[in-house]
């Protein structure tokens, strides 16, 4: 048996050490068999060994091919793993960028919220300042109206006989309390006190009849002025005195003028007497 040939045949597929060991083993077996068997047996054994070696070569070849395929698959898997790791790295980087962008947006939103709160605070302060200004303007308007009304009242009282000269002949201003003793027996305390608050009372001739004119003075004649003048003139009428209610104003609305005419209240407006109701 040529163990070197066996070694050469096996070395390529099994490697040097494995081929050498297998060749030596087969050589030893062959020597033992050669000493114990006949030539025919040796031939049969040799053929069997050759067949076994052939099958072994085929198996080794198959294993080598399988090993090659396995190594190729492993290489494919390694390449796929590399691509996966690269993709994961890309995704991780994208995630980092996304988180950074979200953080920027959150910071921007926080700044926006702070700016909005500051703006709302400023708007609130402006609104409060505006309310305070409105209250101040309203108070100033009330005071101004009061001053204007008082000034107009004093001016009208001072020049009453001149203003009402053609309506009230021989007119003269009468102090309200001069009539108190006359009216007290005929009216209650509340009516008497109300009469004393009349802006002006004048006495003279109206159409030749001795008459008292009870005047309410206001920059703008309104329904309240008309009602007060009528009520206070009626207080004198309850006492048996002839009296006419009159309002003196710088301006009056058509509605208030119509109400005055309906109530029988005369109107002096902006320097002249308005026509009485027909």
Task: Please explain how this structure is put together.
- The structure is a single chain.
- By secondary structure, the chain is α/β, with parallel strands linked by helices.
- Helices cover 70% and strands 15% of the residues.
- The protein has a six-stranded mixed β-sheet.
- Helix 8 (254-263) links the parallel strand 4 (243-252) and strand 5.
- Helix 1 (3-14) packs antiparallel against helix 2 (16-36), helix 1 (3-14) runs parallel beside helix 3 (39-158) and helix 6 packs across helix 7.
Quick summary:
Helix content is 70%, strand content 15%. With 278 residues, it is α/β, with parallel strands linked by helices. Strands 1-2-3-4-5-6 form a six-stranded mixed sheet.
Tally of helical segments: 8
Average pLDDT metric: 83
Main sheet makeup: 6 strands, mixed
Across the major sheet, the strand order is: 1-2-3-4-5-6
Spatial gap, N to C terminus: 161 Å
CATH topology heading of the domain at 159-273: Trna Endonuclease, Chain: A, domain 1
Topology, number of strands: 6
How large, in whole angstroms, is the Cα Rg? 65 Å
Give the CATH level 1 class of the domain at 159-273.
Answer: Alpha Beta
CATH architecture descriptor text of the domain at 159-273: 3-Layer(aba) Sandwich
State the secondary-structure class.
alpha/beta
How much helicity do the residues have?
Answer: over 70%
